[in-house]
Amino acid sequence: MAAARVLLPSYAALVILLLVLPSSAAAGGTADGSEEWGYVEVPAEAHMFWWLYRSPHRVDNGTAPWPTVLWLQGGPGGSGTGYGNFMEIGPLDADLKPRATTWLSKADLLFVDNPVGTGFSFVEGGNQRLMARTDAEAAGDLTALLIELYRHKTRLQGSPLYIVAESYGGKFAVTTALAALKAIRQGRLHAKLGGTA
């Protein structure tokens, strides 16, 4: 499985690393706000990496709220910020060239390296006990990430959240949707769940 995680060309991975490293202690992003990235602790000493793209096609007309798609990769252990972003639906392909068709034409995109230990997500000191052992634990970590993002990125609160996944990520999508609904009902997550796929 470890060999399958490294699919990006080395220069693309280097670009990602250069973007991430300066802001690993706090969220960072582009000057125009079209991209944001960072880490959320889920739980303490376990850090989940996220990357949010704001669509240049975003329409806020009040009648149809602009959606946000949370992309979850399969594997388990495939990097959403790597595979899903550069190999499938993000604005740039693996050669860092603009993609002819990107889901950004219809939604904002949130990629997450899930579960912790995948991609740029990590645990401090290599403490394996902090890594999710079950789908429910992974869903709890993802829900903690969503709670934190929706607390600080209030523009997300008006967008319906669609959790979309491929392969084993489909299990993460369902368990995360259930955990997110519970957190929404409890008032801990200020989001509107639009659906899962």
From TrEMBL:
It is an enzyme of class 3 (hydrolase). Gene3D superfamilies: alpha/beta hydrolase (3.40.50.1820). It holds the Pfam family Peptidase_S10. GO terms for molecular function: serine-type carboxypeptidase activity. Keywords: Carboxypeptidase, Hydrolase, Protease, Signal. Its EC number is 3.4.16.-. The keyword Hydrolase applies. It comes from the Eukaryota. Residues 1-27 form the signal peptide. One of its GO terms (biological process) is proteolysis. Belongs to the peptidase S10 family. This is Carboxypeptidase. The gene is LOC125522952.
